[in-house]
């Protein structure tokens, strides 16, 4: 998606109406005027005109499939191809208006794409933290709750003609390399966390308020399928790269979030990426699209291309000689909707040239129409439907904005905390120095794929609401010397890491490290380093410097950043966020080529592997790291020592030694066990705590050194305890993937880990 397209719809917010009562009054009058003005005349399919109601596709007593078939058979070939692009065509004689498929809602309704925009009627929408920080909350309920609020605001905006119904979010690619510019958009590096985030957020967006599983509130889209996580690294860009991926890495790292989107989240769309995987563009690969997405996982919905993906595999990859061939290859592979123009402009010629049959187009547009049917697009005026009552007063409600603040609080990660540093006491700290380039930023806090937020609370504004502050963006020794405590808000922004730009440097940008060290030297009180960034930073200088008493990572915490930061810094909320990705040292970026997709280490080649599951080198901070103001103790209540896998007579492994069994079929039906733990808050602060259950499988099939089986977040008042239970599915969760990409139950000794607790488990026949 080109930056110019993205910016095109950005309109300035009404933040002008701030200070004076006079202006506020004018604003109030203005909004009253806007609500009184009749909406522009809009055309809704199957609405009003009695001549339309006789069309079968308008008949709401029919099933989706029958309605879609009725519509498709009424269209000419030329009309049909108009429905293969994101700027879908209109057919006046059937009362069908144009439709823009491209809207985005990564962490709030966004203006990117063209299907959605803000106006004086709806000047902003709730802007939640960038996804990487929400993932750090490790709270599956929160993922779904945010999705639900976003879809409510989206529906409201649809009612007033400002938003589409099809949102191309979430981004569920694995954050494989710390340099990735879009890592910020993802739930991190772990396949299980990404899967839970993906299915949770998708359910929140899609689930219909009337409980009808076939209806969609809005349609989500899981992207970018698959093995996509390079923007532009040292001149190697996403439009040209062929990612070389083993079947093993595909199955146990890159594919699981997409599988979960479909099987657990029932997502209505999957988007194929720009890159090639093992020599074929994903949008032209019948095995990946028709085979896996539609065949194996049975997507109920449509497959979309990333924007201009089809054009790029022709233009940048020379994968086809002509655009007609590109269109035919994409459709035959299973693509239904092209963000871009290639399919709309070249499919008709491809049919006439004999490159594909019209029936292939029928199939594609049927998937698109079925999705629109499920959204109520062909049921007339949305204001007379299920969500029709939602008006502009349902956007940016106090409770929605409170959820944005709550999400940021739940995600923020405390990485270092010397005794006596955090939380600051609002009674003893009388003056606070607030320093650094990100200390009073607005748009930086929101991250990319943004909307216009309801309002901004900058870090400075949040802290200043609690205590008297002195603010300096840059050099600041004197300020720090006289304050009771110092907060330095440093880190990155979209000029450092973004779509189309990967990092090469993992250190804080420019002179930031020097500034932090100088200020720390001059400060008399606690020095709190706050890192605002998507990806991890090599801050070894700060980790090792005793004068820097605390380090917080806040991701891009959204519209309520400053309020949430004040909540955690002053201890009104006790931190519970954990890192969803490994923080590597700069040496990693200096020695490991970003373009090498291999997950597993190769010591002979000096290749250290990737993510906590495989990486063998030194880390700054690890996946799951994060401190609390309290302490929590775990003890094991119940876990099996042996799990027996039943095998039928005559199975080869009954007579000979096997290292693993196929994790499918009879062997695996209903093979689960429970792990019960007791968790106690042994500290003086109430707070939430995430319990992580990991397993270290036997060392067969180059299995991960450690993998997450489950996580559960609990709230515990000081000195209280609770039981946490995990149901472990041996074949789904405990299994590993072999070298050929087949899921296997490894036989032998496993070690289950919860914090420092270790428990041995033997899996045998
Ligand atoms: C809708 O379909 C039903 C069942 O086929 C039919 O009885 C009814 O007349 C149709 N409605 C209209 C308005 O055509
Ligand atoms: C594609 O073809 C163009 C023109 O023939 C050539 O310049 C370019 O290097 C080719 N690109 C690739 C990726 O093969
Ligand atoms: C902080 O940023 C806000 C929003 O841009 C601005 O209104 C305010 O003047 C800034 N404060 C300082 C002290 O620069
Ligand atoms: C983004 O970060 C760069 C590097 O630190 C800095 O030069 C630039 O001013 C920042 N931009 C904004 C808008 O804060
Ligand atoms: C901080 O103080 C130490 C000890 O006085 C000194 O060695 C160091 O150079 C100072 N660092 C900076 C960045 O001023
Ligand atoms: C990636 O690194 C591994 C381990 O060193 C090596 O075997 C493999 O050939 C590399 N792959 C690519 C595509 O460079
Ligand atoms: C918590 O666990 C640690 C280590 O197992 C133990 O030393 C400590 O006594 C426990 N504290 C409480 C309050 O149970
Ligand atoms: C699975 O096993 C549990 C307990 O062993 C049992 O209650 C349940 O009915 C079984 N489910 C199926 C589908 O066999
Ligand atoms: C908790 O509070 C008690 C009583 O005020 C105090 O003695 C103890 O040191 C505190 N514990 C910690 C870990 O701060
Ligand atoms: C965090 O702990 C403090 C001190 O015990 C308490 O005042 C505050 O309510 C706690 N916050 C939460 C969310 O429990
Ligand atoms: C998880 O998030 C939900 C939704 O915001 C919240 O109500 C709940 O308290 C959170 N759970 C924990 C254990 O913090």
Overview of this structure, please?
By secondary structure, this protein is an alpha/beta fold. The chain has three domains: about 5-30 and about 405-590, Rossmann fold (3-Layer(aba) Sandwich), CATH 3.40.50.1700; about 55-395, TIM Barrel (Alpha-Beta Barrel); about 630-765, Sandwich (Immunoglobulin-like), CATH 2.60.40.10. It contains 24 helices and 27 strands. It has a six-stranded mixed sheet with strand order 11-16-15-14-12-13. Strand 26 and strand 27 (about 755-765) form a beta hairpin. Helix 7 (about 190-205) packs parallel to helix 9 and helix 11 packs across helix 12 (about 325-335). The protein is globular and about 75 Å long. The two termini are about 50 Å apart. The model is unreliable at about 1-35 (pLDDT under 50).
Characteristics:
765 residues, alpha/beta, Rossmann fold, TIM Barrel, Immunoglobulin-like, 3 domains, 6-stranded mixed β-sheet, 5-stranded mixed β-sheet, 24 helices, 28% helix, globular, disordered N terminus, binds 2-acetamido-2-deoxy-beta-D-glucopyranose, Glyco_hydro_3_N, glycosidase
């Amino acid at each position: 998606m080109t930056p110019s397209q993205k910016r095109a719809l950005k309109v300035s917010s009404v933040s002008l109406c701030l200070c004076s009562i006079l202006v506020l009054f004018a604003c109030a009058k203005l909004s009253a005027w806007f609500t009184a003005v009749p909406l522009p005349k809009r055309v809704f399919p199957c609405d009003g005109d009695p001549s339309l109601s006789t069309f079968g596709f308008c008949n709401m007593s029919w099933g989706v499939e029958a309605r879609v078939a009725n519509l498709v058979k009424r269209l000419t070939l030329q009309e049909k191809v108009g429905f293969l692009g994101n700027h879908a065509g209109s057919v006046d004689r059937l009362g069908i208006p144009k439709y823009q498929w491209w809207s985005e809602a990564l962490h709030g309704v966004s203006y990117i794409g063209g299907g959605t925009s803000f106006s004086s009627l709806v000047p902003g929408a709730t802007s939640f933290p960038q996804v990487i920080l929400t993932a750090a909350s490790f709270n599956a309920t929160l993922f779904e709750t945010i999705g639900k609020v976003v879809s409510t605001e989206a529906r409201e905006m649809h009612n007033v003609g400002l938003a589409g119904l099809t949102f191309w979010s979430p981004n569920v690619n694995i954050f494989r390399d710390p340099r990735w510019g879009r890592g910020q958009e993802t739930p991190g590096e772990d396949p299980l966390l990404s899967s839970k985030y993906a299915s949770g957020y998708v359910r929140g967006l899609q689930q219909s308020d009337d409980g009808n599983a076939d209806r969609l509130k809005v349609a989500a889209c899981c992207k970018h399928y698959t093995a996509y996580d390079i923007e532009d690294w040292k001149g190697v860009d996403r439009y040209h790269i062929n990612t070389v991926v083993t079947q093993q890495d595909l199955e146990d790292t890159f594919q699981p979030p997409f599988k979960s989107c479909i099987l657990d989240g029932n997502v209505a769309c999957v988007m194929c990426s720009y890159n090639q995987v093992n020599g074929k563009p994903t949008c032209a690969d019948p095995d990946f699209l028709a085979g896996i997405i539609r065949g194996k996982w049975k997507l109920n919905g449509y497959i979309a291309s990333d924007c201009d993906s089809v054009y790029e595999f022709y233009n940048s990859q020379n994968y086809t000689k002509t655009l007609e061939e590109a269109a035919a290859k994409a459709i035959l592979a299973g693509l239904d909707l092209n963000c871009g123009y290639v399919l709309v402009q070249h499919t008709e010629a491809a049919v006439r040239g004999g490159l594909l049959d019209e029936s292939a187009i029928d199939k594609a547009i049927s998937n698109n129409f079925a999705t629109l049917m499920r959204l109520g697009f062909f049921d007339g005026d949305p204001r007379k439907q299920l969500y029709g009552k939602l008006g502009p007063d349902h956007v940016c409600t106090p409770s929605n904005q409170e959820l944005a603040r709550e999400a940021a609080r739940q995600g923020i990660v405390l990485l270092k905390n010397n005794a006596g540093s955090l939380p600051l006491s609002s009674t003893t700290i009388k003056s606070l120095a607030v320093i650094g380039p990100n200390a009073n930023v607005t748009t930086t806090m929101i991250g990319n794929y943004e909307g216009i937020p309801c309002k901004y609370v900058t870090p400075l504004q949040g802290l200043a609401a609690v205590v008297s502050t002195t603010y300096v963006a840059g050099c600041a020794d004197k300020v720090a010397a006289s304050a009771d405590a110092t907060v330095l808000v440093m880190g990155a922004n979209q000029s450092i890491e973004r779509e189309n730009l990967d990092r090469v440097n993992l250190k804080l940008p420019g002179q930031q490290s020097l500034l932090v060290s100088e200020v720390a030297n001059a400060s008399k009180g606690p020095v709190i380093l706050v890192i605002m960034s998507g990806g991890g930073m090599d801050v070894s200088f700060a980790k090792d410097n005793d004068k820097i008493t605390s380090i917080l990572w806040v991701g891009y915490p959204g519209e309520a950043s400053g309020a949430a930061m004040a909540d955690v810094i002053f201890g009104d909320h006790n931190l519970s966020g954990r890192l969803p990705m490994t923080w590597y040292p700069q040496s990693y970026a200096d020695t490991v080529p970003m373009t090498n997709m291999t997950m597993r280490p190769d010591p002979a080649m000096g290749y250290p592997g990737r993510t906590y599951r495989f990486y063998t080198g030194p880390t700054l901070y690890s996946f799951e790291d994060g401190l609390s103001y309290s302490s929590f103790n775990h003890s094991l209540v119940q876990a099996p020592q042996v799990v027996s896998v039943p095998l039928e007579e005559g199975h080869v492994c009954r007579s000979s030694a096997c290292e693993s069994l196929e994790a499918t079929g009879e062997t695996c039906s209903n093979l689960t066990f429970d792990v019960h733990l007791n968790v106690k808050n042994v500290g003086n602060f109430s707070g939430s705590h995430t319990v992580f259950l990991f397993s270290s499988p036997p060392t067969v099939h180059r299995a991960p050194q450690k993998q997450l089986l489950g996580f559960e977040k609990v709230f515990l008042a000081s000195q209280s305890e609770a039981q946490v239970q995990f149901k472990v599915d041996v074949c789904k969760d405990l299994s590993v993937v072999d070298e050929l990409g087949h899921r296997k139950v490894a036989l032998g000794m496993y070690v289950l880990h919860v914090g420092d607790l270790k428990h041995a488990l033997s899996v045998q026949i």
